Amino acid sequence: GAVVSQHPSWVICKSGTSVKIECRSLDFQATTMFWYRQFPKQSLMLMATSNEGSKATYEQGVEKDKFLINHASLTLSTLTVTSAHPEDSSFYICSARVSRGANLNNEQFFGPGTRLTVL
Amino acid sequence: GQNIDQPTEMTATEGAIVQINCTYQTSGFNGLFWYQQHAGEAPTFLSYNVLDGLEEKGRFSSFLSRSKGYSYLLLKELQMKDSASYLCAVWRVTGGFKTIFGAGTRLFVKA
User: Would the CB atoms of A43 and B45 count as touching at under 8 Å?
Assistant: First the structure.
């Protein structure tokens, strides 16, 4: 159980275009999902916390108008990188916490990640 | 703010034991995670410590001292497949629930 999927797994786009990344919890409900960005040989940087039915909470320094997050249901959150530029090229990873049940470890389940390359 | 420190790289020999240390300074501390991450893949959960002490799980053990802001991950009987990055992460409840990751320790296991 507790599987998180991301789509697409990789994407290459032209500078100035927008890219949407989907994060789904396949066998559980997640009121909260997290979006991270990871540059090569660096750790995960939290970008925003996505809450079902409400606005996302962005970390300091993350442009909310550039990285649009929508958490429309308990199993789906989307991240849209608007007007992408080469510096946005990175590995984007989402994670989800189990909303119900004995999540005694406060464990987050990570998606496989999406590698974005902006030309 | 928060600060999480761990060594950048470590090298160990197959079959040996290695300890990866992590120190942290943060408000709203509510627990500490260790994750394993192979290159190009998402992190996988190893352990979660809330209370002081040692948690053992097979070849992996994790220790926490809340008063010292210190944790370590202990890997026994090292295998080549253990070569990966090990991420120390703090679970915070200030400003919402969130997990903040350290920079990670790249472990190289040699034959």
Answer: no
> Does residue B60 sit at the A interface (CB-CB below 8 Å)?
no
- Answer yes or no: do B101 and A107 touch at CB < 8 A: no
Which tens digits make up the pLDDT trace of B29-48?
989 999 999 988 889 989 99
Question: Do A119 and A16 touch, CB atoms closer than 8 A?
Answer: no
CA distance B11 to B102: 19
Which structure tokens are listed for B67? 């008063």
Cα A118 versus chain centre, distance: 17
* pLDDT band with cut points at 50, 70 and 90 for residue A108: confident
Q: Give burial (CB, 10 Å; 0-12/13-18/19+) of A109.
A: buried
Measured between beta carbons, the chain B residues lying within 8 angstroms of A36 are 101
B91 touching A (Cβ < 8 Å): yes
